[in-house]
Amino acid sequence: MRRYRVVHTTTYRYQSKVSLSYGQLCVLPREFDGQRCMSSQVEVMPAPGDTRQRVDFFGNRVAYFAVETAHDTLEITADSEVEVSGPRPGRFDEPAASRSTAEAIDALADVVGEQRVETAHYRLDSPRITTDERVHEYAHPSFDDDRPVIEALQDLFQRIHRDFSFDPKATSVSSTIDDLFEHGAGVCQDFAHLAVGCLRSQSLPARYVSGYLETIPPPGKKKIVGADVSHAWVDAFVPDLGWVGIDPTNDQFVNDRYITTAWGRDYGDVSPLKGVIFSNGGKTELDVSVDVRPL
Q1: Taking the CB of residue 112, how many other CB atoms lie within 10 A of it?
Q2: 174, exposed or middle or buried, with CB in 10 Å at 0-12, 13-18, 19+?
Q3: Which of 18, 77, 173, 275 has the highest CB neighbour count under 10 A?
Q4: 271 pLDDT more than 80
């Protein structure tokens, strides 16, 4: 079990004064089996005239704020402490993990109750992820009917890691899976979108997960404050085993170094910050600093 303090600071600097800012944050850690949020708070400068929190359709914690005084800088800091135990040990030794892909897909018909309703949302196309022929063809080599489903998941994230380069300049926050194929490079958001699309194309429920990953500095080097970034990975649903986290960006299954803030159908459901400002226009500068510290 690990405990972390996560400080996520977003700073906007505007060329001209902003009279009103309305924002929505999705950066507060979730509570679920394997993760517990010990504390969390959001600070906005200038001080907002209105703040509130709610739980969205997917069960994510969402914070809202309204800054109603003129400003040329807006800074939002989310400060949380979270305890992560990670996936239960030995689960890949369970019978459900050795099922073939075909058997796992067939077993979805036996899923009932709330779990059936929940997984239904993650089997269909979503605004940013479509299971077109190109995605289906890319996924197919990993999902041989006789291959154990866990091996299939591993083969998928290993292929994505091998076939595409990590390059923040290759894509943008609005890029599509087609852009990833075209450039042959992208970031964690792009790799996660492709992995979700591949899984859905094989009839396996898959959700996009947003959060943080504890980074480890090189031997003999101190960790730099603010050097961490938001991260994205994928949860695939395997009947009788539950949600299995895969990270194609880092070529591994998710473990207790991952801190989950939100999940949804794709990035559009869980973007860390979105909102509206009232201004005369001009250039906007954005700085994001994330620090994940083990406690």
Answers
A1: 8
A2: exposed
A3: 18
A4: yes
For 106-150, the pLDDT digits (tens) are: 999 999 999 999 999 999 999 999 999 999 999 999 998 889 999
Per-chain mean pLDDT for the chain: 94
Global pTM reads: 0.95
Per residue in 30-88, pLDDT (tens digit) is 999 999 999 999 999 999 999 999 999 999 999 999 999 999 999 999 999 999 998 98
- CA dist., res. 223 & res. 215, Å (int): 8
For residue 140, the SS3 value is helix
Rounded to the nearest angstrom, the gap between the alpha carbon of residue 143 and the centroid of all alpha carbons in its chain is 23
Give the separation between CA 272 and CA 193, rounded to whole angstroms.
16
> What single-letter amino acid sits at 269?
D
Partners of 18 in the β-ladder: 71, 279
- Domains of the chain, first to last: 2-84+271-294 (2.60.40.2250), 91-269 (3.10.620.30)
The string of pLDDT tens digits covering residues 216-268 is 777 777 766 656 789 999 999 999 999 999 999 999 999 999 999 999 999 99
The candidate with the shortest Cα–Cα distance to 190, out of 200, 202, 201, 181, is: 181
Q: Are 76 and 10 in contact (CB under 8 A)?
A: yes
242: left (phi over 0), alpha (psi -120 to 50) or beta: left
Q: How many angstroms separate the CA atoms of 38 and 23, rounded?
A: 24
